[in-house]
Amino acid sequence: MQYFTEHKWMQFVALLVVFFALVMAIDPATGGNLWRLQETRFWLLPDVVNDGLKFLIDDFWVVETYDAELDIIEQSTMMKEFTRYLSGVVLFSINLIRELLLGGVKTVVAFTSWDFISENEWARIPALPWPAVAAGAFLAGQYLGGRNLSLLAGISTIYIAVFGQWTPAMQTLSFVLVAVPLSVLLGLTLGIIAFRNKTFEAVLAPLLNVAQTMPHFSYLIPVVVFFGIGDHAGAISTVIFATPPMIRLTILGLKKVSPEVVEAGMMSGCNSRQLMFKVLIPTARHDILIGVNQVIMQCLAMAVIASFIGAKGLGYDLLVSLNMLKIGQALELGISIVLIAVVLDRLSLAWAKKQVDYFADVPFHLRHKYSLAFVGILIFTSIVAYIASMAFPDKANYFYFIHESQGLTTEKFWDSIVDWIITNTYDSVQSFNFFMITSILMPMKEAYLSMPVAATLFLVAGTGYIVGGLRSAIVATAFIAFIALTPWWDRALITAYMTTFAVIISVTIGCSVGILCSRSPKATKFMLLVCDTFQTFPSFVYLIPVIMLFGVSDLSVLIAVIVYATIPATRYTVEGLSNVPKSLQEAGSMSGVNRTQRLLKIELPLAFPHIMLGINQTVVFSLFMIIIGAFIGTDDLGQLIMQSLSEANGMGQGIVLGLCVAFIGLAVDHLINTWAEQRKRVLGLS
Amino acid sequence: MRFLNKLATAAAVSSLVLGATVAQADSKEPIVIATHNWTSQITMAYVIGGIFESIGDNVSYVPADSQAVYESVRNGDVTIAHEVWQSTFGKSFNNALDAGGIIDVGTHASATQEEWWYPAYVGDLCPGLPSWEALNDCAELFATPGSGGKGRYLDGPMDWHGQETLDRIEALDMNFTAKFAGSSGALWAELESAAKDNRAVVVFNWSPNFTDAGDGGSFVKFPAYTDGCKKADGGDGKCGSPPAGWLKKAAYYQMPAKWPTAYKIFNNVSFTKSDIGNMAALVDIDGMTHEAAATKWLADNEATWKAWL
Amino acid sequence: MSTSAQRVIKCESVYKIFGANAVKILEQSGGKVDTASLLEAGCVIGVSNASFEVHKGEMLVIMGLSGSGKSTLLRCISRLIDTTAGDIFIDGEDLLAMNAKELINIRRNKMGMVFQSFALLPHKTVLENIALPLQAKGISTRDSMARAMDMVNLVELTNCENDFPRQLSGGQQQRVGIARSLAVEPEIWFLDEPFSALDPLIRREMQDEFQRLQSVLHKTILFVTHDFDEALRLADRIAIMKDGVIEQIDTPANIVLKPATEYVAKFTRGVPRERVLSCKAIMEEYDATATMSDVTVSANAIIETVAGSVLTEQNPVAVIDAEGNIVGALNRNIMIDVLFGETNSMPVNN
């Protein structure tokens, strides 16, 4: 008995035995509630949520508004007026930046009227010539981070221009330049409040968990209803998605500040505001900057999804070209998205690290040399562009703007590669396809679908109890029980089966690659760069090629998921292994272990908790991508979320389905985190 | 609470004083046109936008999901949606009509057909097509690893017509299973890859569409549609889709008041099947951008659209 | 220390008790501290009944092992933590009664503090770190940077002002900490184990540097250390703490010669007296008739520093005070006794 209580694996084996016994014992035909929970009033939850939200936006606190144009008084609600006002502010900011880059009228209209613009053509803001923007990128890079950054920023801008993606790229940029600062500020503010107020933190924590694991599609309709459609709606949904990591990292960073530093600040006579802004935040900067990096990555990752609700730019163009099967074009657009992300990330990092020279006593023209240089270049390029358009009025003006159809393109090259792969690998792919689907995926799906509710809940509760005691058992079971109460248990099982499969393969690949790379610092660095790139690269691009290769099937979805979900597994393995304390590695070497032994006996066990967090992320990434996989064609929760876009109670249904997906993620997240924390404590790493 | 109420009233009053002119002509505020993710729809958006601009109105375009767009029209965030397909968006559109705030602005001249479809080369692989019985006889040609030996019909996304396909397969006792694609892109990708391998495939498709051009293909002939033949309408389900579905236009309910002229024109707008095909071909086949295609179409077909003014 | 000197810090029965119920139990007992009942309730006593004064220009070293409550006491006096009971006066003002604004004010003008782990802001340069208290005070960037630059020179870090803390050695980092604490020219200087994290050689160097600074600045100092040698070397007076209680508070000489408790004696036992005691502690009465050596020693000189010259003289050596008056005498026998005789066996002047 003592042996049993001391050895968790024994308990786990026993748990599995009981689980399988339950699976055998419960018969689908006669099992009733043990097999699948029958319809209850809980099934009305989507309608309740939907009606609640509708009430809030349509009927709660009605006010009268006056439409000047039509000279009528209309009914509206305070909520609607408020959200529309907020939308207006966001939209104004986006338009302002966009019109500086691309030209336009809306900013002027905001201060005058559409009539004014229609009568005064001159009031349109002209676009900056692209060479001026490229020069600005070079200068900003040089000013903030020196030559390398200058080259990165400048060449990326030139790439975007000469590949004819100027308009969509600047549209995306203007949208990102609003969403990123908004998310960072919001995240910082909420993080600070949570740091100061424990109650607030306790309320915020579960909301953050849900916001980070809920699939984006499930809150698109509510955003449309509350905030309308357009770039602002895209920006707002992006902010919802990108703020949670910022909040988390702000809290984490602030908590990590050593108490002596805080005391030093207090003894320096800082008041609480100064303490926060002069001491705590600068000291927590490392984590906060990781937060900013995450925000930038998330914002650009949302570029495609935001286009579903009106965000113009690279994401929308990418979606259109994919739908037209122009894979090469989609790839080029995807590269632009990655470039914008990388450049913004590096620039913001360099900006935060920029030093001030307090004793430099330099004359005005030297102190402002970059701004002056920019103004000079702007005037020069504008004149060149103007002269060019005067001299060749009928020709395209490459000095001003390179149109989509005039840019360079490598489209044919990529398309021919895709063609080649499809035509030449058909037979081998077909037999692989057939084997995978008939021998692995279909049996696995059948097995999952034969899991009775009662047995599954027992398994979850038991695992929770073994991992983290009663509390974990209750938390994990509550998440899964919520799903069991909805009408979508079978759907959730299919999602679970796909997640399991994708996670197993991703983790196998990711850990192997990670272990191989961690042998050399150079490979480590390279691998982290690859991870960064793939994380920002719009995952939608994979969807069409996998269909062409593997057809519309679960296998296609899973391959796209694995490509995406391998990133965190790899990243965390590399990080975990390279963070193993040097002294322990040396101790190992001195005990005479060889490389393999050192890896197996010392490095992997020590890196294991961190790797587990990577697996945790792999689960979350897989869930996200499986939901996006609905665009290929699935029959899980994702298909229903997609379908809820056209349902009458779509808002509520989308949200409840989104919660189901989130809760699968959160249950796994809770178990893995609890376990990793315990391991860390045992290993003395926390 | 009361303060905010007051604030709202104050705002209303101040705008009352500022904008006291009553609009007889069209508002200069832009008419918002939704663009989705397929060629003909985007090009048509620019064509209609071009017509509105020719009478001096301002226009702006906003990308929108083709299902979610009706909610936005209802709320006035989008002014018009100009391609409402009967079987794919009918449900979303009707839900919005029930909720109010959206006007049905009539149909285009073009009738639509939505049905099982196969590319031309499949006709050689399975002689006897387009008859559904012939299709059923060579079902195994259409089998895929996941279809368990039966033929596989790749349907559009489930929310387009859902149960109808399954009902039909069952009613006609066909040796087929249906797989729901997730998006129209998935349909085209499957068609493209099947064509490269010369593999038999039957998918959901519609006309007018870009597939009308080029080598083309044909719709499978099912037992003729009669009113009420669908299982959902109480019939036996042994019938195909209606041969001429509608393609509607929708508008925000305030459009007639705010842009009376534009609304009148939009009411008249009616594209034929060949109009839509031509627009799509300019982009898909001639490689023009959507805007350029629209400009060219407007220049080439002045007689057609001038008549709607 | 002359009693006429101005009192700068005054503590009266200061208690710091950790634990959720501490305040409640204290209220129940009407403000009277009952140690037994507190311990029973699971409270931990940080500081117990500390009463003492520190005078202007004086340096009080609080000595104790880890967990003795010495840092807690320091934090009570700097009000970084709240005192559970008792009174603390700074320049006659009731520190514990100050509101947040007054507290910030007194910290901005009167207090400076140095920390064991340096507590520098990692992403600010040396100059920016030193300027922090000045900027907090609202002094313009230009002026505060100029002043910070002076401080850089004072602690001999010239040319390092644009380095980041991570680029400096431990000793240099602590110099930055010292410069920061002195930037606003405080009257009261708190040092919390400032040299504990340093290597022995650097520690010694920093102690010398510290004495040099103090000889110029004459601050009122509260210095916390766990190093008894350091306490002896630097202190005007030492307070030895154990389990939150001040066991003894006295001059280094008296602590070494007359340890009040067994605990204090444990520290003093191994201490070479010649390093601690000054001549006046062991001198005998001056006999005007005796033949004196030509050599004289100062009454305040540490024995170790004069032992050599006394031992080489045949005749007694005169001990003189600051004004040059002879106040006593030393001879070789006394010196030999002190250096090689048995500990605590010899008479010592008070």
Explain what the structure shows.
- The complex is a heterotrimer of chains A (686), B (309) and C (350).
- In chain A, strand 1 (62-67) and strand 2 (72-77) form a beta hairpin.
- Chain A is globular and about 90 Å long.
- In chain A, 77% of the residues lie in helices and 2% in strands.
- Chain A has 686 residues and is mainly α.
- Chain B starts with a helix and ends with a helix.
- Helix content of chain B is 43%, strand content 17%.
- In chain B, the strands form three sheets. Chain B has a five-stranded mixed β-sheet with strand order 7-6-8-5-9, with helices on both faces. A three-stranded antiparallel β-sheet of chain B has the order 3-10-4, with helices on both faces. A two-stranded parallel sheet of chain B has the order 1-2.
- Chain B folds into two domains: 28-111 and 245-306, Periplasmic binding protein-like II (D-Maltodextrin-Binding Protein, domain 2), CATH 3.40.190.10; 113-233, Glycine betaine-binding periplasmic protein, domain 2 (D-Maltodextrin-Binding Protein, domain 2, 3-Layer(aba) Sandwich).
- Chain B is an alpha/beta fold and 309 residues long.
- In chain C, strand 7 (188-192), helix 8 and strand 8 form a beta-alpha-beta unit.
- Chain C has two domains: 7-110 and 186-271, Rossmann fold (3-Layer(aba) Sandwich); 274-340, CBS-domain.
- The model of chain C has no long low-confidence stretch (mean pLDDT 86).
- By secondary structure, chain C is of the alpha/beta class.
- In chain C, the strands form three sheets. A six-stranded mixed β-sheet of chain C has the order 6-7-8-3-9-10, sandwiched between helices. In chain C, strands 2-1-4-5 form a four-stranded antiparallel β-sheet.
- The A-C interface holds A 258, 260-261, 263-271, 274, 278-279, 282-283, 285-286, 353, 355, 357-359 and C 75, 78, 80, 100, 104-105, 107-109, 111-113, 115-117, 119-125, 127, 132-133, 135-137, 141-142, 145, 149, 162, 177, 180-181, 184, 190.
